[in-house]
Design brief:
This protein is an alpha/beta fold. It folds into 3 domains: 107 residues, Immunoglobulins (Immunoglobulin-like, Sandwich); 87 residues, no CATH class; 127 residues, Glutaredoxin (3-Layer(aba) Sandwich). The protein has 12 helices and 16 strands. It has a 5-stranded mixed beta sheet with strand order 1-9-8-2-5, covered by helices on one side. Helix 5 runs antiparallel to helix 6.
Length: 357
């Protein structure tokens, strides 16, 4: 769960079901136009229905209108192309737009709101193109390690080709982030990132990618992870160096982090399979409330060493390593050198099978 929510990288592909029919090239996107206009037509709602354009990061409306004769008009200005959501009467059904400063036409039906037809936006068209080429690999891209190495390589190629052919697209950081998720190659990501236009690189999402690159370069593969210590639930100080001689996964997580809790069953499975083969896990919780931390440990069956200073994002170890997103993990060899980062799902099992033959 990220302190800065990179929405483009975590929204499930299945939520993007719109189709785009207008083909507009990246060079035609005018970010500094006076603004956007969304001309919408929707069937199935009564006159007076509230229409909201939402910023998904804040959940707050940025523009609103009411439906009249099945039509609505929303307008405003985007500082740069980005994801926005439209809903009706605050229902939990959304149209997802990759919105830029264009004149956009949209049509949909109440019983299939998410399947809206959207035309007129270059950015949205590029987003639909991106979803189309990545659809065969969406399971892999959302859950690392599900497929074999050959399929992973194909998905990587698709993502890399998209970014290289769209250096001026604000959709490209999404593809680049996915590429990083399945490869964890900061050097390659930096190479691609540097090929983007300055406008894309300096956008908020571009700045976030830049931060990720900088953070990843702090912990290169083959180099040791600095020692640290923190107290367990009983107040005993446990150091990372006490695990020297073992393969150890240093796992940063928290009870309130949904992605962390979703990943825990994979960790439990790996721990059970390899705990008798010189492998263990060292959990560092970014919780603030001790009981919630301990309850999550019990509920998820995390039967390995757990520590926390109960300072949330201010956790001393998290600060030491510049952790600003969780789950985050480092796999260390018996000498304490990093041999893997953020290995999730089957990716961790595959790596452990390889090194613990």
């Amino acid at each position: 769960m990220k302190k800065y929510l990179l929405l483009l990288a975590i929204l499930p592909f299945t939520s993007f079901a719109q189709t785009a029919t207008t083909k507009i090239k990246s060079k035609d996107i005018a970010v500094n136009q006076s603004g956007f206009t969304i001309n919408g037509t929707v069937k199935g709602y009564e006159d007076g229905t509230l229409v909201n354009l939402l910023n998904p990061n804040s959940g707050q409306p940025e523009a609103s209108a009411t439906l009249k004769a099945g039509k609505f008009l929303l307008s405003g200005k985007m500082p740069f192309p980005d994801v926005r959501l439209i809903n009706f009467n605050n229902e939990q059904k959304y149209i997802t737009l990759f919105l830029d400063n264009s004149t956009i036409h949209l049509s949909t039906y109440r019983d299939s709101v998410q399947n809206a037809t959207v035309t007129g936006s270059a950015s949205h068209t590029e987003f639909m193109d991106y979803l189309k080429v990545t659809k065969p690999y969406e399971g892999l891209i959302n859950q690392q390690g599900r497929y074999d190495a050959a399929t992973t390589a194909k998905a990587s190629d698709v993502l890399e080709n998209f970014t290289k052919s769209h250096p001026g697209s604000y959709v490209s950081p999404l593809a680049l982030y996915r590429h990083f998720q399945i490869n964890n190659d900061a050097i390659k990501v930096e190479e691609i990132f540097n090929s983007f236009t300055q406008a894309v690189r300096t956008s908020p999402v571009g700045n976030y990618i830049s931060q990720i690159i900088a953070e990843e370069k702090k912990f290169p593969i083959g180099k040791p992870l600095a020692d640290f210590s923190q107290e367990d639930k009983d107040g005993n100080k446990i150091s990372l160096s006490s695990f020297k001689g073992k393969y150890v996964l240093v796992d940063f997580w928290a009870s309130w982090c949904r992605p962390c809790r979703a990943e825990n069953p994979n960790l439990v499975r790996s721990f059970a399979a390899f705990k008798d083969k010189n492998f263990t896990i060292f959990g560092v919780s970014l919780d603030k409330e001790k009981q919630k931390w301990l309850d999550a440990v019990a509920e998820d069956g995390l039967n390995w060493t757990q520590v926390s200073d109960l300072k949330g994002w201010g956790n001393a170890v998290a600060q030491q390593f510049g952790i600003n997103s969780i789950p985050q993990s480092f796999l260390l060899d018996p000498n304490g050198n990093v041999i893997g980062k953020n290995l999730r799902g089957a990716a961790l099992e595959n790596k452990l099978n390889a090194v613990l033959k």
